[in-house]
UniProtKB/TrEMBL annotation:
SUPFAM superfamilies: Nucleotide cyclase (SSF55073). Pfam families: GGDEF (PF00990). Keywords: Membrane, Transmembrane, Transmembrane helix. It is an enzyme of class 2 (transferase). NCBIfam families: GGDEF. Residues 304-433 form the GGDEF domain. It comes from Shewanella halifaxensis (strain HAW-EB4). Its EC number is 2.7.7.65. This is diguanylate cyclase. It catalyses: 2 GTP = 3',3'-c-di-GMP + 2 diphosphate. The keyword Transmembrane helix applies.
């Protein structure tokens, strides 16, 4: 593994850990805020039900059809509140609440002498007949759940009288449930209790649904599992500032590691692709014969330069004609090699034409140094033959204190080159531009 690869993997790993942590934190907050918002929707729906039930009319029993959906204590109730529509509405609203949704089991409104459950189950008739034989239905619930009959003197707000009980197995149906008891008060005195029964798995299902929507892998923590009643009570009953809102939620180490691994592979893959694309781009911009950059990449660039040399092999056509094109190629390649050997890493060489090259000198360079470099190029070629051929070059150069566009520098160098060629070749002509 190369150093660069190892570095990329380490960096990808660190970035992935940060991304996964951030993702989980953001979504944990999102889950808790979704939980709280929907708890408040439940409160809201119950409040509306309360108002509606206070304003509902009374209907007579037993002649009314309503009796089918009502459990009446010893047939004593002669008049009951007509709550069918409101309780059906409440049931429908709770059914689409993401916290409860398909886990909604029963909604029941309990009055002293009658109970209106939705859905109506035959098992409830026996249950109420047996358990509530001695007392009226409401009294029994208030006693069992320790709910205040009157608000006055209790020091509690209406919301704080809510009770959450569970999990327990419901007699008759054998369903494992949580029950939320919501007492309804009129002028501070309780007149009814609304009971919402949900299957015990509701909170777990809420988290699973969230996972499906948000691609998270949250699980209920043991802490949450043991305190579902408290969590629901605190969210429903307490004032915002008193609420310790929130599910603690956990994530498994296995899934966390998997997420980090996938993330690392993706980031590292992107890095490798970027390196590959860059290499492809660089390689495709290199001239194969000389190893210099190709001219096309620089034609469009609005590059600024100060000093450049334009180098042209003398009588190259003759070399081609006498020794052949292949030898001509060898000469081009060797001339390029020799130029390259006298360049600094900051300098840049471009094959500008067939046997014409441009060398751009970057960084600080005095005129004297520049002139020495140009003359050095001349002698590095003419000092030693190439394939037993005496090869010379001519150079036209521009030396400038200030920067100018590459195209402009090239034109000036071309004029200088013309002078070198006209004055016998194997020469350097430098224009100074101040
Ligand atoms: N072998 C070879 N020849 C090339 C290549 N590219 C261009 N040439 C040839 O280079 C020659 C350039 O000749 P000219 O432009 O007339 O210049 P010259 O003969 O060098 O004469 P001066 O520049 O005036 O000294 C042409 O014959 C081109 O065919 C190449 O890649 N390989």
């Amino acid at each position: 593994m190369t150093k660069r690869n190892a570095f990329s993997i380490c960096l990808s790993l660190i970035v992935s850990i940060c991304i996964v942590n951030l993702f989980l934190t953001v979504n944990k907050n999102k889950l808790n805020s979704k939980f709280l918002t929907n708890i408040l929707f439940i409160s809201d729906a119950i409040y509306r039900f309360n108002v509606n039930s206070l304003n509902s009319k009374y209907v007579s029993l037993p002649s009314n059809d309503l009796k089918q959906g009502v459990i009446v204590k010893n047939s004593e109730a002669k008049k009951i509140r007509d709550l069918s529509e409101h309780i059906d509405n409440l049931f429908a609203v709770l059914k689409i609440n993401p916290i409860i949704s398909s886990n909604l089991w029963t909604v029941a409104n309990v009055y002293p002498e009658y109970v209106i459950p939705r859905p109506f189950r035959e098992e409830y008739i026996n249950l109420f007949d047996k358990d509530f034989a001695e007392e009226n239905y409401l009294e029994r619930i208030l006693k069992l759940e320790n709910i205040e009959k009157t608000l006055e003197g209790s020091g509690l707000t209406v919301f704080e009288t809510v009770r959450v009980f569970g999990p327990y197995i419901e007699e008759g149906t054998n369903e494992e449930l949580f029950s939320i008891y919501y007492p309804l008060y009129l002028e501070g005195v309780v007149f009814s209790v609304l009971v919402i029964d949900v299957k015990s798995n509701f909170l777990n299902d809420f988290i699973v649904d969230f996972n499906d929507e948000e691609f998270t892998w949250f699980e209920m923590s043991d802490e949450d599992r043991q305190s579902i009643s408290t969590i629901i009570y605190e969210s429903l009953a307490l004032k915002t500032e008193d609420r310790k809102v929130g599910l603690t939620i956990k994530t498994s180490l296995l899934y966390n590691s998997l997420a980090v691994l996938i993330c690392t592979l993706v980031i590292h893959g992107c890095f490798l692709t970027a390196v590959y694309i860059r290499r492809f781009y660089v390689e495709s911009s290199i001239d194969r014969l000389s190893g210099f950059y190709r001219k096309d990449g620089f034609m469009s660039k609005k590059m600024s330069v100060s000093s450049i040399c334009l180098i042209d092999i003398d009588h190259f056509k003759k070399i081609n004609d006498v020794y052949g094109h292949i030898v001509g190629d060898i000469v081009i390649s060797e001339v390029a090699n020799r130029i390259k050997s006298s360049m600094r890493s900051t300098d840049l060489a471009i094959r500008w034409g067939g046997e014409e090259f441009v060398v751009i000198f970057n960084g600080e360079l005095s005129f004297e140094q520049f002139s020495n470099k140009a003359n050095g190029l001349l002698s590095i070629i003419n000092n030693e033959t190439i394939n037993d051929i005496a090869v010379t070059i001519s150079i036209g150069a521009i030396y400038s204190q200030s920067e100018m566009k590459l195209q402009e520098a090239f034109h000036l160098s071309d004029e200088a080159l013309y002078e070198s060629k006209n004055s016998g070749r194997n020469k350097v002509t430098i224009y100074r531009n101040s």
